[in-house]
Amino acid sequence: MEESLQSNSLIDNGIKAILELRYEKEKYQEKRRELEKLNEYTSDGTSKIDSTSPTPIYMQIADVLALRISEGKYLTRKLIPSESILEMEFRVARATIRHAISELRKRNLVFTIPQRGTFVK
């Protein structure tokens, strides 16, 4: 009798664990769909840039970064991701990232300290 109760308890715990994993997976998938709806990310998590758009790529990247700043994803007086990280995220050349950051400086959203990085104003 005691053995039966223990095995039932183990089965119940296993079912609970499976249901919790399914719930977490559904939450993750829902969040991914939300991000894709915002058209900021592709299905592999990289930021979406439209190479066929008449808007230059560096300007599209600057717009995405400016949006992140305005939404508070990049905090005031804190570093934005490095050029190499942004280069991997957007899958563009470093020169394009530098051009986008230059555009953010023109918009007075960031400032750069040589050998330190680029910070949100």
- Share of β-strand residues: 5-15%
The total beta strand count reads: 2
Give the termini distance in whole angstroms.
Answer: 69 Å
CATH topology of the largest domain: Arc Repressor Mutant, subunit A
Q: What does the largest sheet look like?
A: 2 strands, antiparallel
CATH class term of the largest domain: Mainly Alpha
Radius of gyration: 22 Å
Strand order of the largest sheet: 1-2
Mean pLDDT: 83
Label the CATH architecture of the largest domain. Answer: Orthogonal Bundle
How many domain units? 2
CATH superfamily of the largest domain: Winged helix-like DNA-binding domain superfamily/Winged helix DNA-binding domain
- Summarize the helix and strand pattern as letters: HHHHEE
* Overall morphology: elongated
Helix content: 55-70%
List the SSEs and their pairings.
Blueprint: H1 2-37, H2 57-71, H3 83-90, H4 94-106, E1 110-113, E2 117-120
Antiparallel strand pairs: 1-2
Give a description of the structure:
There is one protein chain. The chain has a two-stranded antiparallel ribbon. It has helices spanning 2-37, 57-71, 83-90, 94-106; strands spanning 110-113, 117-120. With 121 residues, it is mainly alpha-helical. The protein has 4 helices and 2 strands, in the order H-H-H-H-E-E. The protein is elongated and about 70 Å long. Helix 2 (57-71) crosses helix 4 (94-106) and helix 3 (83-90) packs across helix 4. The longest helix is centred in the first third of the chain and has 36 residues, at 2-37. 60% of the residues lie in helices and 7% in strands. It has 2 domains: 1-37; 57-120, Orthogonal Bundle (Arc Repressor Mutant, subunit A), CATH 1.10.10.10.
